[in-house]
Amino acid sequence: MGKWFPWVYGIAMKPLERSRFKKIRTMLINKAVGRVLEIGSGSGVNFPYYRNVDQVDAIEPNPIMRELTLKYISRSHTQIRIFSAEAEKLPFDDNTFDSVVATLVFCTIPDPVKAFEEIQRVSKPGAKILLFEHVRMNHQPLAKMQDILTPLWRKACDGCHLNRDTLRLLGQTEIAINQVDYYYKGLFVTVEAINDK
């Protein structure tokens, strides 16, 4: 499933990206400023939404996803550079970025706490950290269903953890959460935070 996942994912997400997700991404990414790091850029779906930034350095470890970015780079209004890198080992100097964006990616990162530590390292003090993620739900029956489905889902969907509690993991870092907004009964969240180092 690994090599087919990017294509299947793109087809499955297309209806959501045309409606509610487009509004969420636009609202969140419009808050990015300066030099931006995007974690796990996937197919590049965020690239057209960057407007008031200097440049975007995007990491994506999946070569098929990087290949899919070409159509979105051509629609971008800013300079985009793609790097083959993992979130837990970012190839950038300390205090480089003014903003960090991650959308629907922390569910797949093998060591999310290490990734947050790396984000803190490479972003400037006070840098904006902007996340859009699906998370473990607070509603216990639905959370239990996420727990049951996750082992199979992970194998089929390129390592995606349906039940990852990204907000709790973020709380283990020195990143200060300013605002959390919930969507789809708490299945999806947007987070606005700052690097409080």
From TrEMBL:
GO terms under biological process: methylation
Record carries keyword Methyltransferase: yes
Record SUPFAM superfamilies: S-adenosyl-L-methionine-dependent methyltransferases (SSF53335)
Keyword Nucleus: no
One Gene Ontology term of the molecular function aspect: S-adenosylmethionine-dependent methyltransferase activity
Matches recorded under InterPro entries: Methyltransf_11 (IPR013216), SAM-dependent_MTases_sf (IPR029063), Thiol_S-MT (IPR052356)
Keywords of the record: Methyltransferase, Transferase
All copies of domain Methyltransferase type, residue ranges: 37-130
Protein origin, superkingdom: Bacteria
Protein name per the record: SAM-dependent methyltransferase
Protein species of origin: Virgibacillus necropolis
